[in-house]
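Pipeline run #58 for the internal structure catalog. This entry was flagged by the ingest filter as a single-chain record with no existing model, so it goes straight to prediction. Upstream metadata was stripped on purpose; only the residue string is passed forward. Reviewer on rotation: M.T. Logging verbosity set to normal.
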Amino acid sequence: MILDSANDGEVRQKAGEYEQAKKALDEAFDSDRTYKAKMQELTDVRYERSTLIAKYNAVREGLENKLAGLKKQAELLDNVECVDIENAKCGFLAEAISAKKILEDYPDFVKQKEEEHQKELEPLDEKKATIEEELSQMEIRREKLLNSSQDAMN
């Protein structure tokens, strides 16, 4: 198409506006794609974190059940009329003595499991916080882009 001098400036202006609008649209599309990918990453981290928590809750429940069992076994020692409990050879007393010894260290064992669980969660919590901050910044940029493209259309 050959431009005549009468509408050459107007056509160039419209072409420039078109290029700006196309660039803004491309940026919005890329931004949206990046945002969705980041949201999926956040969903994956949340899922991994809740899986770890569920796993730990099952472990904790097992520890609580074991604690209850150990306490019941150790209670046998309170009701026994054996002369020398510490050197008793019968099976149930030996188990009760063993349970009592395990109970002494059990709070430390449970605390260790809790600390291990927290150490597993820390990197996920940090990653989650980082992604949430990135998403927040993306939302701010998206809002600015949306506002500027609306201003360009008006």
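catalog note: The helical segments are 8-75, 91-153.
catalog note: The chain is about 85% helix and 0% strand.
status: ready for reviewer M.T.
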